[in-house]
Design goal:
- It is a single chain.
- This protein is an alpha+beta fold.
- A hairpin with a 3-residue loop joins strand 4 and strand 5.
Length: 126
């Protein structure tokens, strides 16, 4: 495994926005980005969070994000996990970490609450 290096991609904000766009296209629910750049203990620049109503949809959203970022931006994840049970899939792009939850898991883990100091942007469903 290669070494994890922060700020490895130059287009961090573009990656974050492409993730949001892809989540919207995949009909993800309650899409939120947390800007962690001003939090010195943060391990990344952005979290992008959403949830879905079924494990099938959780996996489909995550797959679509990976495919779209690879195909359109030539960015591959450093690491991903959670595909085994599809209740919480994490996709790590180093400076952007994506969380795709099954709704009850999102409520239980409350990532937004844990990182309440971060600037939060909500992307309303159209």
């Amino acid at each position: 495994m290669t070494e994890r290096v922060r700020h490895e991609i130059e287009q961090t904000e573009d990656v974050m926005l492409k993730v949001v766009e892809t989540m919207r296209e995949a009909k993800a629910n309650d899409i939120v980005s947390l800007d962690l750049r001003d939090i010195h203990t943060a391990v990344t620049d952005y979290f992008v969070i959403c949830h879905a109503q079924s494990k099938t949809q959780v996996e489909a959203i995550a797959d679509k994000i990976i495919d779209k970022l690879r195909d359109e931006m030539h960015v591959k994840p450093y690491h991903s996990e959670g595909f085994e049970n599809a209740e919480w899939i994490l996709i790590d792009y180093i400076d952007v970490i994506v969380h795709v939850f099954l709704e009850p898991k999102r409520e239980f883990y409350n990532i937004e609450g844990l990182w309440a100091d971060a600037k939060c942007e909500r992307y309303d469903e159209d």
